[in-house]
Batch of 2 targets.
Target 1
Amino acid sequence: MCLQRTLVAFALAAVFSGAFASTSLAHEAVGVAGGLVSGFMHPILGMDHVVAMVAVGLWGAFLGMPALWILPIVFPMVMALGGALGLVGFPLPYIETGIAASAVVLGLMVALEARPPTFIAAIIVGAFAIFHGYAHGAELPHAADAMAFSIGFVVSTGLMHLAGIAIGLLVKWRSGLLFVRGSGAAIAAVGVYFLVS
């Protein structure tokens, strides 16, 4: 009980501190160190990215095993592929639309307590991960080391998934389930905002 409260407090602190970080932190250094810092901060500084990453963790926790660990592994792996596509300039249309749609769909999956088979959930998560990764790869700062940047954004993404999982553990209690479902609805609403703006 105490460990779960600690995890939830850590998750909330991580998500909210990232949401209010200064955008100048993402691209100020150069080389390997600059690439790592830039890559780590890049997903955190985009609210559309943050809510989708947290939603993956929430949905995984909601679905339980084995989705609890499969979804947060599939997303960064496929995201890295998308990052490589963005880095080499492969043409992929509707990137921002895909990112916003990921928040809408993943948020709704949580809000509606959707329970598809794990492989279907993994396909949904993986399909959206391509767009998130592409955006990171395409926006790689010229001064940053590409490999370090990639490692940074994969680690950052994993931590946001863990934050979602920690919050998602609240589904064991009725009030916690309502909070998690409400969080899913809020994530979907943020996605709609990004779609129309």
Target 2
Amino acid sequence: MISVILPAYNEEDSIGDVIRETVKALDRITNDWEIVVVDDGSKDSTFAIAKEFAKNNGRIRALSYGKNMGKGFALKYGFEHSRGDLIVFMDADLDLHPKQIKKLIEIMEREKADVVVCSKRHPESKVNYPLNRRILSDAYFFMVKILFNLNVKDTQVGLKLFKRKVLRDVMPRILVKRYAFDVEVLANAVRRGYKIVEAPVELDFKHGSNINWREIWRMLVDTLAVAYRMHIRRYYD
């Protein structure tokens, strides 16, 4: 079974389209799938829309815990309530179209990988992405490489495929709820010997190019905290 985890916060304008397109994409791959929408304390009608889809399709579930806890928390919560052998983490907008899930599965099978992550830096990627965000992404890549020796050129694209055994192994020790969740998961997957490969991505960045510097700072702090726990405290050992 393929489980697609969709963390959603105030996505009432896009969540319906995302669910519909994801259903189409999964139906082209297999009949054995589920979509788990995790409402991360939205203040709009995101959860109500997701519940309506769930009511009409037993393979769609809508979960909520009523309070905004962060994307990382939502993904972990969704995983804990999923059933699939393959777990897809995907953003709840159409910047990343779910039709790309099929390609990730093909790469996982061909490369005998445990994790496949989409990368804006893959030579075959087609990316519409503002220059200022490219610069920040480059800087963060070098920081992550130095801190974790992680041979992944892009940890932040919101479309990833995991074998269930990987997440079952690493999730119990994951602490980051918001900004460095992806790095914490991937660094620990590599630390435990799992094979990660990168995949090309089609990314059409539809949001504004303005940067929230407060979130950048929090992501930096969270990333340094992961490095401290890994290298100094040996928390993950």
